[in-house]
Every structure is written in C-alpha cells, then in structure tokens.
Automatic annotation (TrEMBL):
Region Disordered, annotated ranges: 286-307
Lineage: Bacteria, Bacillati, Actinomycetota, Actinomycetes, Kitasatosporales
SMART domains linked: PKS_KR (SM00822)
Protein name according to UniProt: SDR family NAD(P)-dependent oxidoreductase
Origin species: Streptomyces macrolidinus
PANTHER family: DEHYDROGENASE/REDUCTASE SDR FAMILY MEMBER 7B, DEHYDROGENASE_REDUCTASE SDR FAMILY MEMBER 7B
Domain of life: Bacteria
Ranges for domain Ketoreductase: 16-198
InterPro entries to which the protein is assigned, alphabetical: KR_dom, NAD(P)-bd_dom_sf, Sc_DH/Rdtase_CS, SDR_fam
Length: 343
C-alpha cells in the first residue's frame, strides 16, 4: 500500500469535504476561501450566526457554484462539535479535511489577569482543538483517501510571549496535542499538521481583548500585528497553510521572525527567556491596583482617551503601522473599530 507520505504530492483535494472552525472571519475565513479554490466543499463553523451569514456571502460572491455550509457551533461544548461534524458530513457526503482554527486572544500583564482569564482561553483554544480533533477522527478515518487534520497553534505556543500568557499556555497545549496525535495516529490513514504562525495581518486586533493599560496594550499589539516587516499577509499565510495540509506536512512555522524565535528558543531557551523578560520591561505596566484594572475589553471598543494618549510613541506606531491590519479587518469580516465610525 502507498504510504500517506509518498502519496502527498500526488493528491488533489478537489471534491473533498472540509470543515473549518472559527471560519467566519480572519484567518479562518481565508482558510475556507483557499479550500474552495482547491475544489473542496466547505463547512464553516463559528458562534456568531450573523458573522457566518456575512462569511458565506464573502465566500460565494467571487466563486460561482462554491459549496459553502454554515453551522453555528461553540467549540468549548463537545456536544456542539459532535453536531457540527454530523451536519457537515450530511451536507457534503462525509468529512475529509478538518482545520481547528477557533481561538481568542487576551493581551494584558499578569497583574491584570485572574485564573478565569486563563481558563476561558484554554477552553476555547485547547479544549476547542481537542473537541474538534476527537469528534473529527471517526469521520476522517472513513475518508477514502485518508483524512487530513490541522491544528492552528502559534509561535506563542513554542515560546511564551509577555502579556500574552493565557494565549501562550493554551497554544503550547495545542502544539503538544498536534504532536501527540501525529504519533498516535501513525498508520491509521489520517495525517496531522501542526501550524505555528507568527503575527499575521488578519484584523484580529479588533476582536482581541485587552487589559491593564488597555489603550497602550492595544496600541503596541495592533502596531506589531500590522507592521509589514514583522507580520505576514493573511491571504499568503492561508495559502501556505492549506498547501501544507494538502501535502500532509507534519509541521509548519510561518514568518521568518517566528522561525528564528522558535529556533533560538530551542537552541538557547535560557537566553530567550531572559530576552523575553527584558521585552516585558518595555511593555505597558499594569495600572495601580487602587485604580482598578478595568477588566478586559475588545480592541474595537478601545480609544486613546482624552488624555493625549494618541501622542504617545505606541499610538504613533499604531497609526503608522496599523493601516494594513485595519484594511484586513474590513476585508475579513471583523467588525469595525467604533472610534473609526464603521466601514
């Protein structure tokens, strides 16, 4: 019998049934688009039905005859994921490709977070990937050509990033899950691809939640996420991810900076940990506890405020570097920043 590895460059995904969780906006929306471009029938899942409706219009607008099915799903609820897979299989005659992409981002110093913030992030990112994997496997094993499973991790799961600690912890668990599944499923006809992107211009800064000095945290995060030399065009990233899934690659790390950071941490973890501590010292400090942390707020709800914060270096960088990311947000079904008046 021909192995999955030897078949990998010979197979086409045309006619296969694919499922993308977190598929209504951002990277997930582009992953669905590239699967459609390769001839797949695609089921996208997300919690927000209104977003799903807009996503379906986006995906079918430019592709006549595109087969897109939408399923409201909360990946933290395993029963909801069970229903998702069954509905996708019924709509498109089975399930052959699954990409676990659903996630959340919380940006804040440790002093502004509590255990619930870690728990909610783990529930969505790690348990969401776990539920998706476990519920997908029975269907993927039945795929005539061998199923494909991809888990979207992050370079933040390969080394901890300051002020992104809940996210890094959850993505580290996803990385271990992907490696473990690859080992456990060897010989069962299902390939597993671990995907570890660096920063991408997906407009995710609007959906991310910020704590501590929220305006400053939003400013530095959205500036880096939009900087051309630091972040990656999301459409290009989606193409590379779907190609890796198509070719049954075991692991892919995206962006040169992410590759360099992952390599450096693997070779000299103590040094990179010290460098992370230095970087943490440059990030906004938490407000005085007496002033109250203010909880977590979505990026789209954050403005510089009346105290002249827009004139700080962080906001100037955000204004200079964030244009590409703001454009991506409008294009990729991210609701607009309220301070910008829609669009």
């Amino acid at each position: 019998m021909t192995s999955l590895r030897s078949r990998s460059y010979l197979e086409s995904m045309a006619g296969l049934s694919a499922v993308v969780t977190g598929g209504s906006r951002g990277l997930g929306l582009l992953l669905a688009e590239h699967l459609l471009m390769r001839g797949c029938a695609v089921t996208i899942a997300a919690r927000n039905e209104e977003e799903l409706g807009r996503a379906r219009k986006f995906l079918t607008h430019a592709r006549s005859g595109a087969r897109v099915h939408c399923v409201p799903c909360d990946v933290t609820d395993r029963a909801s994921v069970t229903s998702l897979m069954a509905e996708a299989a019924e709509a498109h005659d089975g399930v052959d490709v699954v990409i676990a992409n659903a996630g959340v981002i919380q940006v804040a110093p440790l002093e502004s977070l509590d255990a619930d913030a870690f728990r909610s992030t783990l529930d969505t990112i790690y348990l969401g990937a776990l539920h998706t994997s476990l519920e997908a496997l029975p269907w993927l094993r039945r795929s005539p050509n061998g199923g494909r499973l991809a888990l979207i991790g992050s370079v933040g799961g390969l080394l901890a990033v300051p002020h992104l600690l809940p996210y890094s912890c959850a993505k580290a668990a996803v990385a271990a899950l992907a490696e473990g599944l690859h080992a456990e499923l060897r010989g069962q006809g299902v390939s597993v691809t671990a995907v570890h992107p660096g920063l991408m211009r997906t407009g995710s800064h609007l959906a991310a939640e910020f704590g501590g000095d929220q305006a400053a945290e939003f400013a530095w995060f959205s500036a880096l996420a939009g900087a051309p030399l630091v972040s990656m065009d999301a459409r290009r990233a989606a193409d590379r991810i779907v190609t890796a899934v198509e070719r049954r690659r075991t692991r892919i790390v995206l962006t040169p900076m992410a590759k360099a950071a992952a390599l450096a941490h693997g070779v000299a973890p103590a040094l990179t940990t010290r460098l992370s501590a230095l970087m943490a010292g440059l990030l906004p400090s938490a407000p005085d506890r007496a002033e109250g942390g203010g909880g977590l707020h979505e990026g789209r709800d954050i403005t510089p405020g009346p105290d002249g914060a827009r004139h700080t270096m962080a906001w100037r960088l955000r204004d200079w570097c964030g244009a590409l990311n703001d454009r991506a947000a409008r294009r990729l079904n991210q609701r607009p920043h309220r301070a910008q008046g829609g669009g």
